Protein backbone atom coordinates (compact mmCIF):
# COMPACT_ATOMS: atom_id res chain seq x y z
CA UNK A 1 0.00 0.00 0.00
CA UNK A 2 1.25 3.44 -0.89
CA UNK A 3 1.33 5.93 1.94
CA UNK A 4 2.00 9.54 1.22
CA UNK A 5 5.26 11.14 2.04
CA UNK A 6 3.88 14.47 3.12
CA UNK A 7 7.17 16.02 4.17
CA UNK A 8 7.87 19.29 2.38
CA UNK A 9 9.25 18.92 -1.13
CA UNK A 10 12.17 21.02 -2.33
CA UNK A 11 11.40 24.25 -4.12
CA UNK A 12 13.68 26.42 -6.26
CA UNK A 13 12.91 29.69 -4.47
CA UNK A 14 15.56 31.61 -2.58
CA UNK A 15 14.83 33.41 0.71
CA UNK A 16 12.99 36.73 0.69
CA UNK A 17 16.17 38.77 1.34
CA UNK A 18 18.16 36.97 -1.34
CA UNK A 19 15.26 37.41 -3.75
CA UNK A 20 15.27 41.19 -3.21
CA UNK A 21 19.01 41.32 -3.82
CA UNK A 22 18.80 39.05 -6.84
CA UNK A 23 16.00 41.12 -8.29
CA UNK A 24 18.19 44.22 -8.21
CA UNK A 25 21.17 42.44 -9.71
CA UNK A 26 19.00 40.83 -12.36
CA UNK A 27 18.07 44.25 -13.73
CA UNK A 28 21.39 44.21 -15.61
CA UNK A 29 21.00 40.71 -17.05
CA UNK A 30 19.87 39.81 -20.53
CA UNK A 31 16.24 39.02 -20.10
CA UNK A 32 13.71 36.74 -21.70
CA UNK A 33 9.98 37.54 -21.70
CA UNK A 34 8.32 34.22 -20.98
CA UNK A 35 5.44 32.95 -23.11
CA UNK A 36 2.22 31.94 -21.32
CA UNK A 37 3.25 28.28 -21.58
CA UNK A 38 6.73 28.94 -20.21
CA UNK A 39 5.23 30.82 -17.26
CA UNK A 40 3.15 27.74 -16.39
CA UNK A 41 6.22 25.49 -16.69
CA UNK A 42 8.35 27.85 -14.62
CA UNK A 43 5.76 28.00 -11.84
CA UNK A 44 5.72 24.22 -11.50
CA UNK A 45 9.51 24.03 -11.71
CA UNK A 46 9.89 26.58 -8.93
CA UNK A 47 7.23 25.23 -6.58
CA UNK A 48 8.34 21.58 -6.87
CA UNK A 49 5.43 20.43 -9.03
CA UNK A 50 8.03 19.21 -11.56
CA UNK A 51 10.35 17.75 -8.92
CA UNK A 52 13.10 16.42 -9.48
CA UNK A 53 13.72 18.96 -12.25
CA UNK A 54 15.86 21.86 -11.10
CA UNK A 55 15.47 23.97 -14.22
CA UNK A 56 14.78 23.79 -17.93
CA UNK A 57 16.18 20.58 -19.41
CA UNK A 58 19.79 20.37 -20.56
CA UNK A 59 20.42 18.86 -24.00
CA UNK A 60 21.42 15.48 -22.53
CA UNK A 61 18.29 15.36 -20.36
CA UNK A 62 16.18 16.46 -23.31
CA UNK A 63 17.60 13.70 -25.51
CA UNK A 64 16.91 11.12 -22.84
CA UNK A 65 13.37 12.35 -22.27
CA UNK A 66 12.58 12.41 -25.98
CA UNK A 67 14.11 8.99 -26.70
CA UNK A 68 13.10 6.94 -23.68
CA UNK A 69 11.22 9.10 -21.19
CA UNK A 70 14.22 9.35 -18.88
CA UNK A 71 16.55 12.10 -17.74
CA UNK A 72 20.25 11.49 -18.35
CA UNK A 73 20.57 9.97 -14.83
CA UNK A 74 17.81 7.45 -15.60
CA UNK A 75 14.96 9.16 -13.67
CA UNK A 76 11.53 8.75 -15.24
CA UNK A 77 10.37 11.99 -16.92
CA UNK A 78 8.13 11.82 -20.01
CA UNK A 79 7.64 15.41 -21.26
CA UNK A 80 10.43 17.80 -22.34
CA UNK A 81 10.34 20.96 -20.24
CA UNK A 82 12.39 23.23 -22.44
CA UNK A 83 12.94 26.97 -22.70
CA UNK A 84 12.42 27.73 -26.38
CA UNK A 85 13.73 31.12 -27.55
CA UNK A 86 14.39 32.95 -30.81
CA UNK A 87 17.65 32.52 -32.73
CA UNK A 88 18.41 36.23 -32.25
CA UNK A 89 18.13 35.99 -28.48
CA UNK A 90 20.16 32.78 -28.28
CA UNK A 91 22.92 34.26 -30.48
CA UNK A 92 23.66 36.90 -27.82
CA UNK A 93 24.26 34.39 -25.02
CA UNK A 94 27.25 32.46 -23.79
CA UNK A 95 27.45 29.31 -21.75
CA UNK A 96 27.55 30.02 -18.02
CA UNK A 97 25.76 33.34 -18.41
CA UNK A 98 22.76 34.18 -16.19
CA UNK A 99 19.58 35.49 -17.73
CA UNK A 100 16.47 36.99 -16.12
CA UNK A 101 13.12 35.33 -16.80
CA UNK A 102 10.28 37.84 -16.81
CA UNK A 103 6.53 37.57 -17.03
CA UNK A 104 4.59 39.37 -19.70
CA UNK A 105 4.49 42.58 -17.69
CA UNK A 106 8.25 42.57 -17.21
CA UNK A 107 8.32 41.32 -13.60
CA UNK A 108 11.41 39.17 -12.90
CA UNK A 109 10.27 35.74 -11.72
CA UNK A 110 13.57 33.87 -11.81
CA UNK A 111 17.09 33.76 -13.11
CA UNK A 112 18.59 30.92 -15.07
CA UNK A 113 22.21 29.94 -15.63
CA UNK A 114 22.65 28.85 -19.23
CA UNK A 115 24.40 25.48 -19.43
CA UNK A 116 23.11 24.40 -22.84
CA UNK A 117 21.86 26.02 -26.02
CA UNK A 118 20.91 23.90 -29.01
CA UNK A 119 18.71 23.65 -32.07
CA UNK A 120 16.37 20.72 -31.47
CA UNK A 121 15.19 18.27 -34.07
CA UNK A 122 11.51 19.13 -33.75
CA UNK A 123 10.33 16.41 -36.13
CA UNK A 124 11.99 13.81 -33.89
CA UNK A 125 10.49 15.39 -30.78
CA UNK A 126 7.05 15.30 -32.38
CA UNK A 127 7.39 11.65 -33.42
CA UNK A 128 8.79 10.39 -30.14
CA UNK A 129 6.90 12.47 -27.60
CA UNK A 130 3.57 12.99 -29.33
CA UNK A 131 3.56 9.91 -31.56
CA UNK A 132 3.45 11.67 -34.93
CA UNK A 133 4.83 14.72 -36.69
CA UNK A 134 1.31 15.89 -37.50
CA UNK A 135 0.22 19.47 -36.86
CA UNK A 136 -3.34 18.31 -36.17
CA UNK A 137 -1.87 17.55 -32.72
CA UNK A 138 -2.05 20.83 -30.77
CA UNK A 139 1.36 20.36 -29.17
CA UNK A 140 3.01 19.48 -32.48
CA UNK A 141 1.39 22.53 -34.02
CA UNK A 142 2.77 24.57 -31.12
CA UNK A 143 6.20 23.01 -31.53
CA UNK A 144 6.44 23.93 -35.21
CA UNK A 145 4.51 27.20 -35.34
CA UNK A 146 4.83 28.88 -31.95
CA UNK A 147 7.91 27.55 -30.14
CA UNK A 148 11.25 29.27 -30.79
CA UNK A 149 13.96 27.59 -32.87
CA UNK A 150 16.55 27.29 -30.08
CA UNK A 151 16.27 25.60 -26.69
CA UNK A 152 18.11 26.86 -23.62
CA UNK A 153 18.80 24.61 -20.65
CA UNK A 154 20.04 25.29 -17.16
CA UNK A 155 19.19 25.52 -13.47
CA UNK A 156 16.63 28.06 -12.32
CA UNK A 157 16.74 30.25 -9.21
CA UNK A 158 13.23 31.23 -8.17
CA UNK A 159 12.60 34.82 -7.12
CA UNK A 160 8.84 34.98 -6.95
CA UNK A 161 5.73 33.07 -7.98
CA UNK A 162 3.85 34.21 -11.06
CA UNK A 163 1.05 36.49 -9.91
CA UNK A 164 -2.54 35.26 -10.25
CA UNK A 165 -5.39 37.63 -9.66
CA UNK A 166 -8.12 35.02 -10.04
CA UNK A 167 -9.18 32.30 -7.59
CA UNK A 168 -6.15 32.93 -5.35
CA UNK A 169 -7.61 30.97 -2.48
CA UNK A 170 -8.06 27.91 -4.69
CA UNK A 171 -4.46 27.69 -5.91
CA UNK A 172 -2.01 25.58 -3.92
CA UNK A 173 1.63 24.75 -4.32
CA UNK A 174 2.64 21.12 -3.73
CA UNK A 175 3.82 22.06 -0.25
CA UNK A 176 0.57 23.85 0.56
CA UNK A 177 -1.43 20.77 -0.45
CA UNK A 178 0.89 18.49 1.49
CA UNK A 179 0.45 20.65 4.55
CA UNK A 180 -3.32 20.60 4.09
CA UNK A 181 -3.39 16.79 3.88
CA UNK A 182 -1.15 16.55 6.94
CA UNK A 183 -3.37 18.90 8.87
CA UNK A 184 -6.54 17.00 8.04
CA UNK A 185 -4.89 13.63 8.57
CA UNK A 186 -5.58 12.49 5.03
CA UNK A 187 -3.41 9.43 4.37
CA UNK A 188 -4.85 8.20 1.09
CA UNK A 189 -5.79 10.77 -1.48
CA UNK A 190 -7.15 10.10 -4.95
CA UNK A 191 -6.73 12.93 -7.47
CA UNK A 192 -9.00 13.63 -10.39
CA UNK A 193 -7.46 15.57 -13.27
CA UNK A 194 -9.84 17.49 -15.48
CA UNK A 195 -10.01 20.21 -18.12
CA UNK A 196 -13.78 20.02 -18.57
CA UNK A 197 -16.80 21.07 -16.53
CA UNK A 198 -18.01 18.33 -14.18
CA UNK A 199 -21.49 16.88 -14.52
CA UNK A 200 -23.34 14.26 -12.48
CA UNK A 201 -21.52 11.34 -14.11
CA UNK A 202 -18.15 12.81 -13.08
CA UNK A 203 -19.36 13.43 -9.58
CA UNK A 204 -20.48 9.79 -9.36
CA UNK A 205 -17.31 8.35 -10.81
CA UNK A 206 -14.98 10.42 -8.65
CA UNK A 207 -16.93 9.64 -5.51
CA UNK A 208 -16.93 5.92 -6.37
CA UNK A 209 -13.20 6.02 -7.10
CA UNK A 210 -12.58 7.58 -3.71
CA UNK A 211 -14.76 5.00 -1.96
CA UNK A 212 -13.07 2.10 -3.76
CA UNK A 213 -9.61 3.39 -2.90
CA UNK A 214 -10.82 4.21 0.64
CA UNK A 215 -9.36 7.60 0.05
CA UNK A 216 -10.20 11.26 0.23
CA UNK A 217 -10.76 13.03 -3.03
CA UNK A 218 -8.81 15.87 -4.59
CA UNK A 219 -10.47 17.51 -7.60
CA UNK A 220 -7.40 18.86 -9.36
CA UNK A 221 -8.44 20.76 -12.48
CA UNK A 222 -5.96 22.26 -14.88
CA UNK A 223 -6.29 26.02 -15.23
CA UNK A 224 -3.04 26.76 -17.08
CA UNK A 225 -3.29 25.91 -20.76
CA UNK A 226 -5.61 23.18 -21.96
CA UNK A 227 -6.85 22.14 -25.38
CA UNK A 228 -7.76 24.98 -27.73
CA UNK A 229 -11.54 25.35 -27.76
CA UNK A 230 -12.06 24.18 -24.15
CA UNK A 231 -14.45 26.00 -21.84
CA UNK A 232 -12.44 28.84 -20.25
CA UNK A 233 -11.18 28.19 -16.74
CA UNK A 234 -13.15 31.05 -15.14
CA UNK A 235 -16.39 29.37 -16.11
CA UNK A 236 -15.09 25.93 -15.21
CA UNK A 237 -13.98 26.92 -11.74
CA UNK A 238 -17.39 28.42 -10.99
CA UNK A 239 -18.88 25.10 -12.17
CA UNK A 240 -16.48 23.06 -9.99
CA UNK A 241 -17.39 25.15 -6.99
CA UNK A 242 -21.04 24.30 -7.54
CA UNK A 243 -20.26 20.56 -7.80
CA UNK A 244 -18.07 20.58 -4.71
CA UNK A 245 -21.17 21.07 -2.56
CA UNK A 246 -22.49 17.72 -3.80
CA UNK A 247 -19.82 15.63 -2.04
CA UNK A 248 -20.18 14.61 1.57
CA UNK A 249 -18.56 17.34 3.64
CA UNK A 250 -14.86 17.07 4.44
CA UNK A 251 -14.28 14.09 2.14
CA UNK A 252 -13.29 16.18 -0.84
CA UNK A 253 -11.31 19.27 -1.70
CA UNK A 254 -10.49 21.16 -4.85
CA UNK A 255 -7.27 22.84 -5.89
CA UNK A 256 -6.34 24.52 -9.16
CA UNK A 257 -3.24 23.41 -11.05
CA UNK A 258 -1.51 25.94 -13.28
CA UNK A 259 -0.25 23.32 -15.70
CA UNK A 260 0.23 23.83 -19.45
CA UNK A 261 -1.11 20.57 -20.84
CA UNK A 262 0.43 19.06 -23.99
CA UNK A 263 -2.37 16.58 -24.77
CA UNK A 264 0.29 13.87 -25.08
CA UNK A 265 -1.99 10.96 -24.12
CA UNK A 266 0.05 8.10 -22.56
CA UNK A 267 3.17 10.16 -21.82
CA UNK A 268 0.98 12.92 -20.45
CA UNK A 269 -0.75 10.47 -18.09
CA UNK A 270 2.62 9.45 -16.62
CA UNK A 271 3.58 13.11 -16.32
CA UNK A 272 0.28 13.92 -14.58
CA UNK A 273 0.98 11.08 -12.16
CA UNK A 274 4.44 12.41 -11.31
CA UNK A 275 3.06 15.92 -10.80
CA UNK A 276 0.34 14.55 -8.52
CA UNK A 277 2.89 12.53 -6.53
CA UNK A 278 4.70 15.81 -5.93
CA UNK A 279 1.44 17.28 -4.64
CA UNK A 280 1.20 14.50 -2.07
CA UNK A 281 -1.51 12.29 -3.56
CA UNK A 282 -1.46 8.48 -3.47
CA UNK A 283 -3.97 7.56 -6.19
CA UNK A 284 -4.79 9.00 -9.58
CA UNK A 285 -7.78 8.42 -11.84
CA UNK A 286 -6.82 7.58 -15.43
CA UNK A 287 -9.53 7.02 -17.98
CA UNK A 288 -10.10 6.12 -21.56
CA UNK A 289 -8.09 8.39 -23.86
CA UNK A 290 -6.53 10.36 -20.99
CA UNK A 291 -5.32 13.79 -22.23
CA UNK A 292 -6.21 12.83 -25.80
CA UNK A 293 -5.52 15.41 -28.52
CA UNK A 294 -8.47 14.55 -30.81
CA UNK A 295 -8.14 13.23 -34.37
CA UNK A 296 -5.02 13.31 -36.53
CA UNK A 297 -5.01 14.75 -40.04
CA UNK A 298 -6.21 11.39 -41.42
CA UNK A 299 -9.23 11.55 -39.09
CA UNK A 300 -7.93 8.81 -36.77
CA UNK A 301 -7.11 8.85 -33.06
CA UNK A 302 -3.50 9.61 -32.18
CA UNK A 303 -3.43 6.98 -29.42
CA UNK A 304 -5.27 3.80 -28.57
CA UNK A 305 -8.03 4.30 -26.00
CA UNK A 306 -6.18 2.42 -23.24
CA UNK A 307 -2.56 3.31 -24.12
CA UNK A 308 -2.45 5.87 -21.30
CA UNK A 309 -3.65 3.37 -18.71
CA UNK A 310 -1.14 0.75 -19.90
CA UNK A 311 1.83 3.10 -19.84
CA UNK A 312 0.83 4.38 -16.42
CA UNK A 313 0.52 0.84 -15.04
CA UNK A 314 3.96 -0.08 -16.37
CA UNK A 315 5.53 2.82 -14.49
CA UNK A 316 3.23 2.95 -11.50
CA UNK A 317 5.86 2.04 -8.91
CA UNK A 318 8.31 4.63 -10.14
CA UNK A 319 5.61 7.27 -10.32
CA UNK A 320 4.72 6.50 -6.71
CA UNK A 321 1.00 6.85 -7.33
CA UNK A 322 -1.50 4.05 -7.79
CA UNK A 323 -3.75 4.18 -10.83
CA UNK A 324 -7.49 4.07 -10.32
CA UNK A 325 -9.53 3.03 -13.29
CA UNK A 326 -11.97 5.67 -14.55
CA UNK A 327 -15.41 4.11 -14.81
CA UNK A 328 -17.59 5.35 -17.63
CA UNK A 329 -20.85 6.12 -15.84
CA UNK A 330 -24.24 6.15 -17.54
CA UNK A 331 -27.69 7.02 -16.25
CA UNK A 332 -30.18 4.16 -15.92
CA UNK A 333 -33.62 5.64 -16.37
CA UNK A 334 -35.67 2.95 -14.55
CA UNK A 335 -33.44 3.18 -11.46
CA UNK A 336 -32.96 6.94 -11.70
CA UNK A 337 -29.33 6.29 -10.85
CA UNK A 338 -25.85 6.22 -12.36
CA UNK A 339 -24.10 2.89 -13.02
CA UNK A 340 -20.71 2.02 -14.45
CA UNK A 341 -21.39 0.98 -18.05
CA UNK A 342 -20.21 -2.57 -17.25
CA UNK A 343 -22.74 -2.97 -14.41
CA UNK A 344 -25.88 -1.78 -16.15
CA UNK A 345 -28.82 -4.12 -15.41
CA UNK A 346 -30.12 -6.04 -18.42
CA UNK A 347 -32.80 -4.41 -20.59
CA UNK A 348 -32.34 -1.13 -18.74
CA UNK A 349 -32.78 2.17 -20.57
CA UNK A 350 -29.43 3.88 -20.61
CA UNK A 351 -29.22 7.65 -21.04
CA UNK A 352 -26.10 9.57 -21.89
CA UNK A 353 -25.29 12.92 -23.46
CA UNK A 354 -22.01 13.24 -25.37
CA UNK A 355 -19.83 16.33 -25.28
CA UNK A 356 -20.86 17.17 -28.85
CA UNK A 357 -24.54 16.83 -27.99
CA UNK A 358 -24.09 19.01 -24.92
CA UNK A 359 -22.44 21.74 -27.00
CA UNK A 360 -25.28 21.51 -29.53
CA UNK A 361 -27.87 21.91 -26.78
CA UNK A 362 -26.04 24.91 -25.36
CA UNK A 363 -25.63 26.44 -28.81
CA UNK A 364 -29.26 26.01 -29.69
CA UNK A 365 -30.64 26.81 -26.25
CA UNK A 366 -32.22 23.33 -25.88
CA UNK A 367 -33.02 21.87 -22.45
CA UNK A 368 -30.25 20.06 -20.55
CA UNK A 369 -31.92 17.52 -18.26
CA UNK A 370 -31.37 17.46 -14.50
CA UNK A 371 -30.29 13.83 -14.58
CA UNK A 372 -27.34 14.91 -16.69
CA UNK A 373 -26.03 17.92 -14.79
CA UNK A 374 -26.57 20.18 -11.84
CA UNK A 375 -28.74 23.25 -12.48
CA UNK A 376 -26.00 25.57 -11.17
CA UNK A 377 -23.49 24.09 -13.64
CA UNK A 378 -25.90 24.41 -16.57
CA UNK A 379 -26.62 28.00 -15.57
CA UNK A 380 -22.90 28.85 -15.56
CA UNK A 381 -22.38 27.22 -18.95
CA UNK A 382 -25.34 29.06 -20.41
CA UNK A 383 -23.96 32.36 -19.16
CA UNK A 384 -20.70 31.77 -21.06
CA UNK A 385 -22.17 29.99 -24.08
CA UNK A 386 -25.50 31.62 -24.79
CA UNK A 387 -27.48 30.21 -27.70
CA UNK A 388 -26.02 31.10 -31.09
CA UNK A 389 -28.66 33.73 -31.73
CA UNK A 390 -27.29 35.69 -28.75
CA UNK A 391 -23.57 35.19 -29.44
CA UNK A 392 -21.31 37.64 -31.21
CA UNK A 393 -20.23 36.96 -34.79
CA UNK A 394 -18.36 38.50 -37.71
CA UNK A 395 -19.47 38.93 -41.30
CA UNK A 396 -16.36 39.35 -43.41
CA UNK A 397 -16.92 40.70 -46.93
CA UNK A 398 -14.06 40.29 -49.39
CA UNK A 399 -13.87 41.30 -53.05
CA UNK A 400 -12.25 43.65 -55.53
CA UNK A 401 -12.27 47.41 -55.14
CA UNK A 402 -15.62 48.72 -56.35
CA UNK A 403 -17.24 45.28 -56.15
CA UNK A 404 -20.01 46.62 -53.88
CA UNK A 405 -18.69 45.38 -50.51
CA UNK A 406 -19.25 48.65 -48.68
CA UNK A 407 -22.71 49.21 -50.12
CA UNK A 408 -23.92 45.73 -49.18
CA UNK A 409 -22.19 45.94 -45.80
CA UNK A 410 -23.98 49.22 -45.06
CA UNK A 411 -27.35 47.79 -46.06
CA UNK A 412 -26.68 44.73 -43.89
CA UNK A 413 -25.73 46.89 -40.92
CA UNK A 414 -28.97 48.85 -41.16
CA UNK A 415 -31.07 45.68 -41.44
CA UNK A 416 -29.35 44.17 -38.39
CA UNK A 417 -29.83 47.37 -36.41
CA UNK A 418 -33.49 47.36 -37.35
CA UNK A 419 -33.75 43.86 -35.82
CA UNK A 420 -31.92 45.04 -32.68
CA UNK A 421 -30.60 42.89 -29.83
CA UNK A 422 -26.86 43.17 -30.44
CA UNK A 423 -24.55 46.13 -31.13
CA UNK A 424 -23.32 46.31 -34.73
CA UNK A 425 -19.99 47.76 -35.86
CA UNK A 426 -19.00 48.30 -39.48
CA UNK A 427 -15.28 48.12 -40.23
CA UNK A 428 -15.31 49.34 -43.80
CA UNK A 429 -12.10 49.22 -45.86
CA UNK A 430 -11.90 52.96 -46.47
CA UNK A 431 -12.91 53.91 -42.93
CA UNK A 432 -10.36 51.57 -41.38
CA UNK A 433 -7.65 53.00 -43.57
CA UNK A 434 -8.51 56.50 -42.33
CA UNK A 435 -8.48 55.52 -38.65
CA UNK A 436 -6.78 52.27 -37.68
CA UNK A 437 -4.33 51.96 -40.59
CA UNK A 438 -3.68 55.51 -41.72
CA UNK A 439 0.06 54.96 -42.09
CA UNK A 440 -0.23 51.85 -44.27
CA UNK A 441 0.14 51.48 -48.04
CA UNK A 442 -0.77 48.56 -50.34
CA UNK A 443 2.29 46.26 -50.25
CA UNK A 444 1.55 42.65 -49.27
CA UNK A 445 3.02 43.30 -45.85
CA UNK A 446 0.90 46.39 -45.25
CA UNK A 447 -2.30 44.78 -46.56
CA UNK A 448 -1.73 41.82 -44.21
CA UNK A 449 -1.17 44.15 -41.29
CA UNK A 450 -4.33 46.04 -42.17
CA UNK A 451 -6.40 42.85 -42.31
CA UNK A 452 -4.92 41.54 -39.08
CA UNK A 453 -5.86 44.76 -37.31
CA UNK A 454 -9.41 44.50 -38.64
CA UNK A 455 -9.44 40.86 -37.52
CA UNK A 456 -8.28 41.77 -34.04
CA UNK A 457 -10.97 44.43 -33.58
CA UNK A 458 -13.62 42.08 -35.01
CA UNK A 459 -12.51 39.29 -32.67
CA UNK A 460 -12.88 41.59 -29.66
CA UNK A 461 -16.35 42.66 -30.81
CA UNK A 462 -17.32 39.03 -31.41
CA UNK A 463 -15.95 37.97 -28.02
CA UNK A 464 -18.07 40.59 -26.31
CA UNK A 465 -21.29 39.56 -27.99
CA UNK A 466 -21.48 42.15 -30.79
CA UNK A 467 -21.72 41.88 -34.55
CA UNK A 468 -18.70 43.00 -36.57
CA UNK A 469 -19.13 43.64 -40.27
CA UNK A 470 -15.82 43.94 -42.12
CA UNK A 471 -15.52 45.07 -45.72
CA UNK A 472 -11.90 45.22 -46.87
CA UNK A 473 -10.51 43.81 -50.13
CA UNK A 474 -8.50 41.23 -48.11
CA UNK A 475 -6.85 39.74 -51.19
CA UNK A 476 -4.84 36.93 -49.53
CA UNK A 477 -6.30 33.54 -48.58
CA UNK A 478 -3.79 32.83 -45.81
CA UNK A 479 -4.48 36.13 -44.05
CA UNK A 480 -8.24 35.63 -44.29
CA UNK A 481 -7.75 32.15 -42.79
CA UNK A 482 -5.70 33.53 -39.92
CA UNK A 483 -8.42 36.09 -39.14
CA UNK A 484 -11.05 33.35 -39.32
CA UNK A 485 -9.11 31.26 -36.79
CA UNK A 486 -8.75 34.19 -34.43
CA UNK A 487 -12.45 35.02 -34.56
CA UNK A 488 -13.75 31.46 -34.42
CA UNK A 489 -12.37 31.16 -30.89
CA UNK A 490 -15.21 33.46 -29.87
CA UNK A 491 -18.03 33.12 -32.38
CA UNK A 492 -18.97 32.49 -35.98
CA UNK A 493 -17.01 33.86 -38.91
CA UNK A 494 -19.12 34.26 -42.03
CA UNK A 495 -17.08 34.95 -45.12
CA UNK A 496 -18.99 36.61 -47.96
CA UNK A 497 -17.30 36.83 -51.33
CA UNK A 498 -18.65 39.76 -53.31
CA UNK A 499 -17.89 38.15 -56.65
CA UNK A 500 -18.26 41.08 -59.00
CA UNK A 501 -15.93 40.47 -61.95
CA UNK A 502 -12.93 42.67 -62.63
CA UNK A 503 -14.51 43.76 -65.94
CA UNK A 504 -17.65 44.94 -64.14
CA UNK A 505 -15.71 46.72 -61.36
CA UNK A 506 -13.62 48.45 -64.01
CA UNK A 507 -16.69 49.36 -66.04
CA UNK A 508 -18.31 50.93 -62.95
CA UNK A 509 -15.05 52.56 -61.78
CA UNK A 510 -16.93 54.63 -59.21
CA UNK A 511 -13.82 56.24 -57.74
CA UNK A 512 -11.91 56.49 -61.02
CA UNK A 513 -9.14 54.37 -59.54
CA UNK A 514 -9.10 51.64 -62.21
CA UNK A 515 -8.41 54.27 -64.89
CA UNK A 516 -5.50 55.61 -62.85
CA UNK A 517 -4.26 52.07 -62.22
CA UNK A 518 -4.37 51.25 -65.96
CA UNK A 519 -2.38 54.41 -66.63
CA UNK A 520 0.17 53.24 -64.07
CA UNK A 521 -0.58 56.22 -61.83
CA UNK A 522 -1.58 53.92 -58.93
CA UNK A 523 0.81 51.07 -58.30
CA UNK A 524 -0.03 47.65 -56.80
CA UNK A 525 -3.70 48.01 -57.63
CA UNK A 526 -5.72 44.89 -56.82
CA UNK A 527 -6.84 43.05 -59.93
CA UNK A 528 -4.69 45.19 -62.24
CA UNK A 529 -1.16 45.08 -60.91
CA UNK A 530 -1.64 43.17 -57.65
CA UNK A 531 -3.19 39.76 -56.92
CA UNK A 532 -6.63 38.87 -55.62
CA UNK A 533 -6.97 35.27 -54.41
CA UNK A 534 -10.63 34.30 -54.65
CA UNK A 535 -12.02 32.44 -51.62
CA UNK A 536 -12.56 28.79 -52.54
CA UNK A 537 -15.23 28.00 -49.95
CA UNK A 538 -16.80 31.13 -48.52
CA UNK A 539 -19.97 30.74 -46.47
CA UNK A 540 -21.69 32.81 -49.19
CA UNK A 541 -20.85 34.14 -52.62
CA UNK A 542 -22.96 37.02 -53.91
CA UNK A 543 -23.14 38.15 -57.47
CA UNK A 544 -23.94 41.86 -57.77
CA UNK A 545 -24.32 42.06 -61.53
CA UNK A 546 -27.94 42.83 -62.33
CA UNK A 547 -28.94 42.29 -58.67
CA UNK A 548 -30.20 45.02 -56.32
CA UNK A 549 -28.14 45.88 -53.23
CA UNK A 550 -31.16 45.19 -51.07
CA UNK A 551 -31.38 41.69 -52.47
CA UNK A 552 -27.67 41.05 -51.88
CA UNK A 553 -27.99 42.14 -48.24
CA UNK A 554 -31.06 39.96 -47.92
CA UNK A 555 -29.08 36.94 -49.12
CA UNK A 556 -26.65 37.56 -46.26
CA UNK A 557 -29.53 37.84 -43.79
CA UNK A 558 -30.90 34.49 -45.01
CA UNK A 559 -27.47 32.92 -44.58
CA UNK A 560 -27.20 34.27 -41.02
CA UNK A 561 -30.63 32.84 -40.26
CA UNK A 562 -29.74 29.44 -41.67
CA UNK A 563 -26.64 29.41 -39.45
CA UNK A 564 -28.81 30.16 -36.43
CA UNK A 565 -27.04 33.46 -35.80
CA UNK A 566 -30.19 35.54 -36.05
CA UNK A 567 -33.81 34.60 -35.53
CA UNK A 568 -36.31 35.24 -38.33
S1 LIG B 1 -6.67 45.65 -48.36
O1 LIG B 1 -5.94 45.04 -49.48
O2 LIG B 1 -7.72 44.78 -47.89
O3 LIG B 1 -5.78 46.10 -47.28
O4 LIG B 1 -7.37 46.95 -48.96
P1 LIG B 1 -8.47 47.89 -48.25
O5 LIG B 1 -8.02 48.26 -46.88
O6 LIG B 1 -9.80 47.26 -48.35
O7 LIG B 1 -8.43 49.20 -49.08
C1 LIG B 1 -8.97 49.22 -50.32
C2 LIG B 1 -9.43 50.65 -50.69
O8 LIG B 1 -8.30 51.47 -50.89
C3 LIG B 1 -8.38 52.13 -52.18
N1 LIG B 1 -7.08 51.85 -52.85
C4 LIG B 1 -6.64 50.66 -53.32
N2 LIG B 1 -7.22 49.43 -53.43
C5 LIG B 1 -6.49 48.42 -53.94
N3 LIG B 1 -5.25 48.56 -54.38
C6 LIG B 1 -4.61 49.77 -54.32
N4 LIG B 1 -3.35 49.90 -54.75
C7 LIG B 1 -5.33 50.88 -53.77
N5 LIG B 1 -5.02 52.17 -53.55
C8 LIG B 1 -6.09 52.75 -52.98
C9 LIG B 1 -9.60 51.62 -52.84
O9 LIG B 1 -10.50 52.71 -52.85
C10 LIG B 1 -10.19 50.54 -51.97
O10 LIG B 1 -11.52 50.77 -51.60
P2 LIG B 1 -12.74 49.82 -52.01
O11 LIG B 1 -13.83 50.19 -51.02
O12 LIG B 1 -12.33 48.39 -51.86
O13 LIG B 1 -13.06 50.21 -53.38
UniProtKB/TrEMBL annotation:
Query: What positions does the domain APS kinase occupy?
Result: 391-543
- Which EC number(s) does the record attach to this protein? 2.7.1.25
Q: InterPro entries, alphabetically? A: APS (IPR002891), APS_kinase_dom (IPR059117), ATP-Sase_PUA-like_dom (IPR025980), P-loop_NTPase (IPR027417), PUA-like_sf (IPR015947), Rossmann-like_a/b/a_fold (IPR014729), Sulf_AdTrans/APS_kinase (IPR050512), Sulfurylase_cat_dom (IPR024951)
Query: Pfam family example for this protein?
Result: PUA_2
Q: Which residues form the Sulphate adenylyltransferase catalytic domain?
A: 171-383
Residues annotated as binding ATP are 399-406
What reaction is this protein's catalytic activity?
A: sulfate + ATP + H(+) = adenosine 5'-phosphosulfate + diphosphate; adenosine 5'-phosphosulfate + ATP = 3'-phosphoadenylyl sulfate + ADP + H(+)
Identify the metabolic or biological route this protein is part of: Sulfur metabolism; hydrogen sulfide biosynthesis; sulfite from sulfate: step 2/3
Task: List each copy of the ATP-sulfurylase PUA-like domain by range.
Answer: 8-160
The first-level EC class reads transferase
Q: What does this protein do?
A: Catalyzes the synthesis of activated sulfate.
Q: Which protein family is named in the record?
A: Belongs to the APS kinase family.
Q: What is this protein called?
A: Adenylyl-sulfate kinase
Per the UniProt entry, what species is this protein from, by scientific name? Sinisalibacter lacisalsi
The major lineage groups are: Bacteria, Pseudomonadati, Pseudomonadota, Alphaproteobacteria, Rhodobacterales
Q: Which gene encodes it?
A: sopT
Amino acid sequence: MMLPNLAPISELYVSYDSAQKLKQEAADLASWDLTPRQICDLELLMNGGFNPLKGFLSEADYDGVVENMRLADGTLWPIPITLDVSEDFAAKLEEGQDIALRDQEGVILATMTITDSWVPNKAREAEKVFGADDVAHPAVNYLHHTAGKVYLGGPVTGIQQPVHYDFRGRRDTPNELRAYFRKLGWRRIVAFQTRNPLHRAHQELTFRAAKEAQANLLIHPVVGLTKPGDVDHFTRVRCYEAVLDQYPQSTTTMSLLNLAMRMAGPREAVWHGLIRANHGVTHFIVGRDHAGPGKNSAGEDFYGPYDAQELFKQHQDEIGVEMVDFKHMVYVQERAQYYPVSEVPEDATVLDISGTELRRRLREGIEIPEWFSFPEVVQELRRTSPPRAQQGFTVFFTGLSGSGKSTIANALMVKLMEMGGRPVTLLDGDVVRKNLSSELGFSKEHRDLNIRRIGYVASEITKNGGIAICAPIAPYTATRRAVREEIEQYGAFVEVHVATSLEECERRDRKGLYKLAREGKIKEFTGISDPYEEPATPELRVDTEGVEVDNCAHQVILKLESLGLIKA
